[in-house]
Design brief:
Layout: H1 2-50, H2 58-67, E1 76-84, E2 87-94, E3 97-105, E4 111-118, E5 124-130, E6 133-138, E7 146-151, E8 154-159, E9 166-170, E10 180-185, E11 191-195
Length: about 200
Amino acid sequence: MIARGFEGIEKACRCLGRQQKTRTVEKSQKITYSCLLLLLGFFTFYFNDTQQLYGNDEESILKVIHSIEGYENNSIEIVEIKDMNDRRYASFLSNNNPGYIQFQKNKDGNYRWQHIEVNVNEAFSVFAPEPLLFMIVTNEENKIAKMQVSVNGQEIEQEFTPYKASVTWMFPPKTGKSHYSYKYYDKDGELIKYYE
């Protein structure tokens, strides 16, 4: 009878040992799966980030524009690239329509695109990417030689070269509530348009 008791204890110990081994194997498998998931996440993030397109130079700006839906097959001509603080602006013609794309410099020094805008069927386009910044982009069909902007009665005048793709930057005066009016003239000084 005592022998049977020892056999029962021995059997129970073997069973307990198997359970502990099973738990150890399960724990080990969980750790392995967790490590694999972490590695998979790291590589996914790493390779996605390295495939990110940046606007660090003219060639990469063209690639960024062509990667944006609606611009994939457009003819793109960069007119000018200008950096202001941590922002980069590239004016361009998309199928001869004036536009611009804006980038923001990240902590690694790369320029990530933030905004793109194109005005279709215009030869002379005024963009305001920031409150006190006007960007005027023209194509070869532009007839405007001069623009007068009145800001709360204060006149600002800007000249342009007609029939040439160009970009011009204007910094209107800082005022409280602003009222703008615009006059556009051709090369002979004739008024073409007036907007208030």
